[in-house]
Amino acid sequence: xxxxxxxxxxxxxxxxxxxxxxxxxxxxxxxxxxxxxxxxxxxxxxxxxxxxxxxxxxxxxxxxxxxxxxxxxxxxxxxxxxxxxxxxxxxxxxxxxxxxxxxxxxxxxxxxxxxxxxxxxxxxxxxxxxxxxxxxxxxxxxxxxxxxxxxxxxxxxxxxxxxxxxxxxxxxxxxxxxxxxxxxxxxxxxxxxxxxxxxxxxxxxxxxxxxxxxxxxxxxxxxxxxxxxxxxxxxxxxxxxxxxxxxxxxxxxxxxxxxxxxxxxxxxxxxxxxxxxxxxxxxxxxxxxxxxxxxxxxxxxxxxxxxxxxxxxxxxxxxxxxxxxxxxxxxxxxxxxxxxxxxxxxxxxxxxxxxxxxxxxxx
Length: 363
Description:
The protein is an alpha+beta fold. 21% of the residues lie in helices and 28% in strands. Helix 1 packs across helix 2 (51-61).
């Protein structure tokens, strides 16, 4: 007995070894070709262009269709294909990284919990609690280069160490895969001032600092050591532009938001300096633990002793891992810049020493 030949819906006979779908008819192939052309015109903005060209261009440029991120600040992905053709893709910064979190309320504190990992002394990664990548940084010659690419931390294509006068000079010489730079400059009495500056393709214009950090130290007689203190200045107007050249071209804001870190106090029971952090996020002592308040909160005795009234906290969780929590008026990029400055205070020279009365004028 011989089995009858297997026939498809189109009526064509198939061999006993073919297990795939039947080949589509000419009309079906033409309809699918038209659908691909319509989809390609929507993707690339050019009528009648197949989407294969657009995907090939994105693959050559290093961009891939990333799945939706679970980051607490929102999706972080490049979706502007017109800027890719204009050559401005390296200036793109996700608005989720530039926009501060919503204003806190009594019911919703709107904290953004993150973690900073430090696999090496010159490499940093900012990730969400679920492990979603947000920002990465590398230190070369005292300059912190910040990027939104996860492979940037492990890459070695970075400029040679050069002495820069400030962060703006370092931003003008930064490579294309860098979106921001954190570098110190000499302030009053040659004291270091760390600046967070966005990198722009318009190298001639002076970039606006997105954040300024002024470190200082206070001598503690009981402990016999120096306590670090940070004075932070943020622009009052939050950046809304997606591209660094748009943000740098905006008029300079006259007013700034002043933030100060709280100094630890002597604990008689423990016999050491202690600082109370909120939500049990910090588990180990470190000289890089900081709790930052606004100037208004420090003047209020009730809010000054409440860890939930802070706007930024950086504390050690485990070896090479730190908890980084922030909320309004800080954004993710600004909080990461403050953390990088806090890590680099130890390696900077000329940090001024002030008295405890000067460090705590609110008391």
